[in-house]
Amino acid sequence: MRILIVEDNQRLAQLLVDGLQHRGFAGDIAGTLDDATSALSVSQYDAMILDLGLPDGDGVKWLAEQRARNHLLPVLILTGRDGLPDRIAGLNAGGDDYVVKPVDIEELAARIRALLRRPGPRSQTRLEAGHLCFDTASRELHSGDVRIDLARREADLLEILMRRLGSVVTREAIENALYSFEEAVTPNALEVNVSRLRKKLSDAEAGCTLHTVRGVGYLLQEN
Ligand code: CA
Question: Which CATH number fits domain 2-117: 3.30.1360.20, 3.90.550.10, 3.40.50.150, 3.40.50.2300?
């Protein structure tokens, strides 16, 4: 799950990235509304955390503009503005949740998970393929009745492939989803995760196979 964090306080932004990373989210930081607009145009995000007082403008107005352009991703407003009129304005502009700083990172992660569970094209929580059933909220994977333990990246990788079951997903798209801008990704980091996941699926007789499509990407297919 990839989150765009729009926050001009660099220290807070980094704390959010680190805290969310431990809880299974990859976070990118945008320090201005301009940066946020660019990030949304080049990358796919599952949700956004939005501060309201940004150096180049007001987050409420910007959010309303994004909504008008049909940007539908879940948005959690995280702000110091705690007045009732502010909350109402933020939610009316298209915020899905409104949290006043300071926030506990555990609560923030729980609220993001709750947003991602809401009905919508991107929020289906149970994915199935072959004998596999993956719960995207709890990150638990079962093959039939057998629980399969996955490392965080393996779970993220599997989720991407299950959401595109039967289609080739490019290596680039997977890397963009798994790793944030700032992370140094070694050339074979993805392959290592792919081969571990592939082995776990075959050991568990998952009823589907993770194929490598040479020079393009990866494909999960039911047997
Ligand atoms: Ca601010």
Answer: 3.40.50.2300
